[in-house]
Amino acid sequence: MAATARYRSQSTRHRTTGNKRPTGPRRPAKVAILPAVTFTSPVPPLDLRSLFPGIEAFGRTATRLHPRAGTPGLSDSHVAGMLLWPADEPWPTCRGPHLVPTETSVPAEVAALLKTPRVEMTALLRERIPGFTGIRTTEAGTVLLGSEAVTEPIPSPLVPVAQLRAADIPDLHCPVGTDLLQVLWCPNRHHDSAGPPVQLRWRVSSTVVDPLPAPPPPTVVRAEQYLLRSCVLHPEQVTEYPWWQELPAELGRRVRDFDDNCQLGEHDYSSVSRARGWKVGGYATWALTDLLPMDCPGCHRSMDLLLTVDSSESEGSSAWLPVEDSHLRPSRTDPEWMAAYQPTGVSVGREGRLQVFVCMTCPDTPTRQIIQ
Length: 372
Hints:
Elements (H helix, E strand, L loop, with lengths): L6 E4 L3 E2 L32 H4 L8 E5 L3 E2 L8 E2 L13 E2 L3 E9 L1 H6 L5 H10 L5 E5 L2 E10 L5 E2 L1 E7 L14 E6 L12 E6 L27 E2 L3 E5 L8 H12 L8 H5 L5 E3 L22 E7 L24 H7 L11 E6 L8 E5 L1
């Protein structure tokens, strides 16, 4: 279908058990209590089991996180905010290379030729302008947009993305002996299009007796869309069904034919079968690339979808709009709608979703990630 995807593979994951050398007074971490507010997914507008007999065998649970603006406790499951981090453990950093936007001015006579550039001209610009992405013309003149890779002289701290407790998230399966997942990333653009590089930490929460009070702020932020608002979570377990190419051939063909015959604005299998928004587990979506293998770089087995970081919670569709938000109408000028639609403030790709896959078989729990 669309463009070839870029993805990132990493195996530098850490499973930690807290402080090795506690310093200062020992104090227990705060006990996490999730907010009493709940969010509920609506009844699906399509009965997929009736439409596609046999698909029930492929149902899989996912946990929608339903982030909403709030101030979580140190030990709570949450988005952004502070992590339950041992005070004597080094905070992860990144020195790049990071992609920095560039603008190259062009003379007026050249700008005239660029108004309707030929394929050959575009190819030449990609060759001559590092990271060429396009042309912008304003009253001030015409510039060629590109980017250059910069290695930072001082490593910049990563920013917290999420902290998830296995006790709160039914579909979070931690490595044996751990009960807490922490996710961090670098708020800068990197060479490929797989989104901000993600790092994981698996912990035993009860062993963190001297937590760091606040995260070190990043010293370099060139992609503010990767800075998140602090949110509390309202987990809800739902059932999902696979992308059509993951189904047996005949069943997948029926699903594809159904979607091809849907009219614009109608609910189809793709919009109903997998939850929108932040979630743990469930099935991946392959809307940009069609199905791609996500195999472990170590053992070469198929990896599991661990976490989906979504730019919106409902994509403006009622199929996954929580019942509690059903009175809202899509409007980017309505603060209440935006608080429900984009509570975390994050935007990956072109308002897409970052899907993080993990191998729980290999000891270092390697990950791969891709934007869809």
